[in-house]
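Homework help thread (please don't just give me the answer)

Our assignment gives two proteins as sequence + structure token strings and asks us to describe the second one. The first is just a warm-up. Here they are:
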Amino acid sequence: MIFFQKILRTSSISDRPLFLACLALACFLWLFNALSKKYNLVVPVQVLYNNLPGNQIPTTPIENNLELNLYGEGFDLLRYGVSKSLQPIYIDFGNLDGQKAIPTSSFLPQLENQFRKLEILEIYPKVIPVQLEEASSKMVPVKLNTNIGFAPSYFQLDSIKLNPSKILVSGPKSVVDSINVWPSQQLSLENIQNSQTGSILLEKPNSFNLTIEPELLGYEIMVDQWTEKSFELNITTVNLKDSLQVFLYPQKAQLSIQIPLSEYEAFTDAFFELKADFTNIDLKSKSKVPVEMVSKHPKNIRNPQIKPEKVEFLIYK
């Protein structure tokens, strides 16, 4: 470049057009010489499939492209790249007649007709597998993977509601038959104090020929807060001989339990009983009997406390 700048500075104005013409000619000769040489070029060729059986599905990934390693003069490669479009290769499943694999060398006549002035050195891959299996679909339950933490005194009131509770899994029958549940991505929530609703993606299939529908899972988490409620209840006796009478002191006890705040008014003393069970009580050596709670409301109660825990008894006939 410096050389040409010196020539331009030392040349007269009238010589410059001649110089530029010489320069253009030199570039043309250089390009002509370069394109006269032979080169390698790798090009992709699309593969299209016809007549895939509707009740079957490939068990191995189907090739969508072939890679051709071409060899030829630069002129031909350039002319091909500028003026010609690649013609795809077609594979008709209706003509395979049970073939499990197709050697790509069988496409050479078609490819050589397309690249007439170029030599095809190699086709990749060497073989296209076409293994098929019966297609199948079924509904499977979903599983929400969770990492959930609640604020102190807050808790999950009921089981998490999922929408949908089942999804459609489709793919090769041998694979679909082995699937009994489909997991979601992990839902992480911390310090929860309110009910939560939202959606989360299901885990993606780990196989190219497996699909799920839908791919998004809705959830609802009901959250409540523990609160305490107390009742004063009569104590009844159980498992005492009919011939015996008993006097308890005291005859009542206080029951304190933790219940959901949202159900505070709904919980009444009708849900609970206090019983003095004499099944394992030695009437001659013991003077007190434990008091036990019996609940008619099996859900959402915790930490029952009875005061007193034992009461005195006096047996008479």
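The one we have to describe:
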Amino acid sequence: MRQDTRGGLAIERLPEIDWLRGVAALGVFLFHAAGVCGFPKRTLPPIEVMGRSLAQIPSPLTFGATGVDLFFVLSGFCLALQQWRDRNDGWTAARLQKYARHRVARIVPAYWAACALSLLVMLSLGEPAEALWWATSTHLLFLHGFVQAHFLALNGALWSMATEAQFYVVFPLVFALYRRGGARLGRGWWWLLFVGLAFVLTVAIRGVIAAAGEGPIVGEISRAALLQYQLPGRLLEFCAGIAVADLFKRGVIAPRWLLAAVCAALTPFGLWARALGPSALVDPALGLMYGALLAALLLRPRGAAATGAGGRVSRLLRGPGAAFGRSSYSFFLVHVPILLAVAAAAPMDDAGPWTRFLVVGGVGLALSLVVGTGLYVGVELPLWRRLRGR
């Protein structure tokens, strides 16, 4: 690896990050759309081809759920890169206050609005009001991760916000440990040791949870899954993002063959873990896979993007995909209640799952784009600018 003079800390916005956010949000949308329309979780519904029915086809839509793993990697990357841009050489009371204010301004206004929308939709669908009020109260405080019955009760996509909030709480400590380790052991390969330690720790903790048994299922989720979905069971994904942020801000450029080899090794590992692997490995393996993908996109010369194939990639990344990525948080927050509302308004009891998927998914996508963009323009962006201060 070599150093680049691109001045990574001066780059205000990375289109690659926006583009990846959009891809992650769209993948999660497709996964939930398939579930709402009655698709099996692991296979596609039978497909009729020339009078023959093809069944038990592995579903690529199930991998859309891994968009959450990508979100967590991106979150670790963005949080760490922002601290390096701010020249954070130690957490003071003022820095912690600024950090907390920025995190609240960034996620809370749109999230609370999505909670209100989800509550209205679930009430209109006839869900018990008292249970919904309790679930909403824990969601508003980001505490639904600690209540099994509430974890998926209000909006099936919002469970990840509890995990995100948990990482926000521990991030100052993790970031301080990362900086201290780099200072003592040298920055050269500390990032790799850090990721390796996070991987071992995460897999070990998830393995202990799995060995204790699934436990009772409450609210469509087992006790083991509830624990594995949160910290420290998702620590590796955030740590992978921190490590890539370190390499990026130092201007490290990795040879293309090395990036290709790492991605070629980790992608099958991640996909295998998602499809067939033990629960202890699933999300840590996906964290490594998406960390490698992020590194492959970012650890390249920025100036080379102006011409040739790099220029074509750069123009693609800066196009509509990046624009969608900027509003993808709001899109992500509202897509599940919108899908449920569309499915209830157009039940199509006699239609097949593929017809329901095309209609409900198509209409739900259009409405989610409209509502999500409105939430981004009307709530998320202006309140972020107003509340974050300086």
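TA reply:
I won't write it for you, but here's a hint about the kind of observation we're looking for: The two ends are 36 Å apart (CA to CA).
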